[in-house]
Amino acid sequence: MIELEKVQATTNLARMVIDWQEKPLDVVRETSPLEVDHLSAWYGKSKAIRDVSMKMDGNRVTAIIGPSGCGKSTLIRCLNRMHEVIPGARIEGKIMLDGENILDVDAVRLRRRVGMVFQKPNPFPTMSISDNVSAGLRLNRMFGGKSYNEQVEKSLRQAALWDEVKDKLNEPATNLSGGQQQRLCIARALAVEPEVLLMDEPCSALDPIATLKIEELMRELVNHYTIVIVTHNMQQAARVSDATAVMMLANDEHVGEMIEHGPTREIFTNPKDRRTEDYITGRFG
Question: Is the pTM of this model over 0.90?
């Protein structure tokens, strides 16, 4: 019975992968790949991830999956150096974007190129909807006058939120629903025109309808951005991603490692590591 359920689960996930990946991509804006080379990260003396290497192709969604505590969020936070904000945290290795090691550039300038959306919607509570979107523009002194307002509208349209908020741009962002707030945070990240969009479990606090909207949005945004998403939802990874990376805790110590990385279709239908198969079919994790 267990083997039958495992086969059925794998078949269902594979069908989701095929349904999504057979849709052609109308690439409008070519984006650079993001490459991690022998990356390790620490919190003080405690190592969180060890020797991670992978490439995240441009104009593709890469999903990072694995059980809780295996370093998924640490890895994605390293990709725009948010990890460094934590006292005592440090990184070793390389993270290459467009041929440049991002660990050697100014962190503020980097975060304009590599935007991030967090697990819980975090609009600025004292700002209006419009001011939330334009916060990054003001910080980076981008645009101005008419083009300033046009960029706010463009970002809200990209986040599939414009039609819902166009008549209440000056109202507090906290008046929006949870799903709308998350799309607002996506619009805020897109306003500064990054090359890469990182999303750390962006749907974990949302209901199924709001989750579907975010997933549909990701498949549209990938035409213009390189997207990396952390998710605990296997069905979501199968639906939205082109490539999947699997992380696990090492057997010998409490440190996260990447055990395999490849096209989502292959990861979900023919994984190389038995631990991957056990995890995506729900046998552990």
Answer: no
